[in-house]
Design goal:
Helices cover 70% and strands 6% of the residues. It has 132 residues and is mainly α.
Amino acid sequence: MRFIIRVVVNAFALWVVTLIPVLTVTITAFAPGEDLQKVLTLLAVGAVFALVNSVIGTVIRVVAFPLYVLTLGLISFVVNGLLLWITAWITSFWGWGLGVGEFWWGVVAAIVISLINWFFGILLRPQRKKRS
């Protein structure tokens, strides 16, 4: 259930990022490209992004731990942009998916996606029951 919520939040965040034209992030929908296909494409790209972030992102974070300490965590912006770029590269093989124009605009888009995920993470976090 948590993975499905993560995919939906990622899809929403990707949709918001595609609405900002300066970031040059695009979504190429399944054929014929109607609204339903765009939503399904966003969900599929959200799932790929969640998997890339879980698998490859974890490996990168473990290996690059000294860089995280050295840069006080600022390298995480570049790592998130790299993960977004990897997602675009993976989905480009199927003829649909994510497109990222320039790497540094991808880093900014990844920051926006991280902020949206953070906001929804606070909203959707399970509340602890208080003991009386």
